[in-house]
Amino acid sequence: MQQPNTDIRDKILPHHVFQLQSIVDSLTVSRGWSLSTLRGHILSPPARGFRPRRDVDLFLDRNNEMIGSGYLNGVDVLRQLLEKDSILHADPNRHQAQSELLQGVQEDFINWLGESNYMHGLQTIPLSCFSSTNGLWEYSPFLCGVGLIEGLEITYLLNMKIWDRIPEPVLLIHLHNMLLQKGYITKPIGLYASLEELFPSSFFSAGKVPTSNFAGALLARINETGSRRLIFERKATARTAARSAVDIHGLLDVNANRFFRTKSTLTLYRQVDWDPERIADSDIRVTSFLGMARLGQKKQLIGPMTGERRLEDTELVNRARAQGMDELALLDLLSLLGRLKANDDVRLPENLLGSSSKGQRLPELSKRTGGATHPNDVHNDLKVTGQKLLELLKWDIFADVCGEQPLLSLNYVWVTARFIMLFMQIEEELRRLKNPLYVRAYETEREWRWHKRVGLTMMALSGEDNECLQTMAREFQNPRVGFMTHIYWKDIEEMGTRIKSLNQRTKTNEGVDGCVVM
């Protein structure tokens, strides 16, 4: 606290003013009052069904209204299951660190996200100026959005850390793939197939899904990260984070993980202070809009014999080709970026946004751009900047949070609980059947004493025990769980659908100003 009459003007920095203005603007826009540079004040009805805390409440689900979706209840369930797993392996400290981390984050969210401590009768701070004791949250979509974004990223990083410490995620994805390849499961189960698609390099060696030698594939993934050099690098990263981290993001750095090192879009931007130019090509998803913008900056070459143009070989360009984007599609992308840069209208064309979550945006670009004409100048500057770049990048964040690459939409604590419960179902059924693989892994072979589920999975992947595989397949489908079962929101949305809606809304608002007097 400053002394009365202290001159604080030099402490009010530009970003403080911007943040305060954003808080005010978010309130007025949510209530239907916006400001246009050309048209002045515009009044329209407030958004139907919207309130500032809506999405924060969906995320936390303080009142347990959506079983399987809310974070707070998911933490309670997962901690109980981790305790049961500790009992199974006769090791009370087996998951203590993970459980304490979960509890700490849960308590922070309860006390600080979406609710103010003014609500709980604090007497040592000045009274709130709002009529509601929770007014700061109730009236600020901006504050709720910023808090929610941080909460989503923290939960993602924390659960990547937990997945890196427990075997169940990797084991179940390999089992699901094997049962599917061998025909024990006839259709992919949504949750496991989606995770396989979102984290291919986390689950499989070189990101390639195996079709045979399933036990060898699991060992290959383990050995891929088990060299002395990689172990030393991970430990060094963890030590550095422990010494120099200034917040929980630093402590949960995915670079210290062994398997789960995928960074969300929000993590990428936060780590470079929201300067996209500082993001390395190796960290960029080819199918992201930042990936497309970065591809547009690559040098074009002309073949001396054929005269055909192509992009120079770089790490990002080679990954684009490996994911199915041929040279024609790459050049079409440059044409589209050139038109976007030359056009004063910063709204993105709908055909650029209407592709699916399976990475089809890149290989389909040549079809979607309607036979684009490629620029003749191979040195054409296609670097997109300013408002147009922001227009592109906001859709990457949209996809990350609630769109087509929803890394942050998934409630990982409930998914982890689902993993453990599935193993418990399999174990109970195999124990009832006195299955030989179960007896070996859980009762007789001491080498699996501390890793019973690893032992069962390795034997199931390498053996031909039909009874065991049929039992596993049956329990995988009891019930069949979809990806949407455990997302925070009621739905996710394709970017193409969203941009059409926004464009139609913009056209609707191009009439007479909402308030002639103002």
Q: What distance lies between the first and last C-alpha atoms, to the nearest angstrom?
A: 40 Å
Q: Count the beta strands.
A: 4
Task: Please compute the radius of gyration using only Cα atoms.
Answer: 26 Å
> What is the overall number of helices?
24
- Spell out the helices and strands N to C: HEEHHHHHHHHHHHHHEEHHHHHHHHHH
Average pLDDT rating: 84
* Residue fraction in strands: under 5%
Low-confidence stretches: 354-373, 511-518
Q: Bin the helical content.
A: 40-55%
Q: Which sheet architecture does the biggest sheet show?
A: 2 strands, antiparallel
Q: Tell me, briefly, the overall form.
A: globular
| Helix-strand category | mainly alpha
Widest β-sheet, arrangement of strands: 1-2
Region (Disordered): 351-379
Tell me what you see in this structure.
32% of the residues are buried. It is globular, with a radius of gyration of 26 Å. By secondary structure, the chain is an all-alpha fold. The protein contains 24 helices and four strands.
Summarize the structure.
Residues 351-379 are annotated as: Disordered. The chain is mainly α. The protein has 24 helices and 4 strands.
Q: Any descriptors?
A:
single chain; 518 residues; mainly alpha; two-stranded antiparallel sheet; globular
Q: Helices, strands, pairings?
A:
Elements: H1 14-30, E1 33-36, E2 40-43, H2 54-60, H3 71-88, H4 96-112, H5 135-138, H6 141-165, H7 168-181, H8 190-198, H9 200-203, H10 214-224, H11 228-244, H12 248-251, H13 265-271, H14 289-295, E3 300-302, E4 309-311, H15 315-322, H16 327-342, H17 350-353, H18 365-368, H19 386-402, H20 412-433, H21 436-444, H22 452-462, H23 466-476, H24 495-508
Antiparallel strand pairs: 1-2, 3-4
Helix pairs in contact: 3-4, 3-20, 4-6, 7-8, 7-22, 10-22, 20-23, 21-22
Region (Disordered): 351-379
